Amino acid sequence: MVRSLLLTPGPLTTTDTVKTAMMGDWCTWEEEYKKLTSGIRSRLVELAGGGDQYTAVLMQGSGTFSVEAAIGTFISKEDHVLIGVNGAYGRRIVEIAERLHIPYSTVTVDDTKALEVASFEEKLRADSSITHVMFVHSETTSGLLNPAQDICRIAKQFGKTTMVDAMSSFGGMDMSMGDWNMDVLVSSSNKCLQGVPGFGFVLANRALLKSRKGCAPSLSLDVYDQFETMENDGGKWRFTSPTHAVHAFSQALDELIEEGGIQVREARYRQNQETLISGMEALSFKTAVSKSIQSPFIVSFLYPDETFSFDDFYKVLKADGFVIYPGKLTDLQAFRIGIIGDIHVSDIHRLLESIKMYMTERGGLLV
Length: 367
Fold this sequence. Notes:
The chain is α/β, with parallel strands linked by helices. It folds into two domains: about 5-10 and about 260-360, Aspartate Aminotransferase, domain 1 (Alpha-Beta Complex), CATH 3.90.1150.10; about 15-255, 3-Layer(aba) Sandwich (Aspartate Aminotransferase, domain 2), CATH 3.40.640. Helices cover about 40% and strands about 15% of the residues. Strands 2-10-9-8-5-3-4 form a seven-stranded mixed β-sheet, with helices on both faces. Strands 11-14-13 form a three-stranded antiparallel β-sheet, with helices on one face. The chain has a two-stranded parallel ribbon with strand order 1-12. One of its GO terms (molecular function) is 2-aminoethylphosphonate-pyruvate transaminase activity. It comes from Domibacillus mangrovi.
């Protein structure tokens, strides 16, 4: 039987042991479960650079739930957020700000270009009303990496609160919130940390978070209230938590350490990426973004010609045990292949063989 692989940016392929960790039923208020939650919170802070300066708050729902919770908790209607936009997820931050009636302005570039630090500096210098800066680190629309450390550094020079959507990058590459001048970072259980869907988390400067009591316009998406309950009641969630996903995530964190930590995982992802791009180029595919800004998490490939059918391509690959993503680029015909999760270079080689067979049969490859 062919092993089915999710070559997507999350949900992603998980190990059998992570799946097995969900095989049980748990009560949310028992001490053992609350200790599990507290342990996860501490481990997330360690992965983000450690220290008492930061804390982690787990939030039910998808990653976007946590992004909206962070925006609503840390930014008010009296503030002004400068949002970096170069993909669908930057545009989603704008949409959330609009729904919450938060004043905003943008630094906007093409979906295949990285955000430029100079553009942020120009906006910050010209408009003193800006209080916050927020952007996506790894834009999974295209697979590019934005210069998070440099953008946050500039923002801090102007005294702004920095918020980073690191949904598809946290846990997959070394980053330190302190060294990178991040006040708030948002990510999810089912990305580079290789858990399953069910919750996201907000990592935040502890002093900043403690100043946000009563600020959120939502009950369920109030990061401060969730933080206060978890702090004061030993890891208790305010409302019913995804117990199975939490147990799976704890196992996934164990497996990150067993693998050798973030640096070793990043090296595996980068080997996957390099093997994939090299192999795809040999099969007449080109990447949508420059290799200099390409992330090791997901790659967008342009259609090889006008007759290429993504639907046909998708069906053939799925029959071979590979699930990929359609494109999200505004003006380019493209598709995306994720390289995170329990994916190894041997899997990439099998994928390339499947693609080679497809391209040969459709007459799009000279052999």
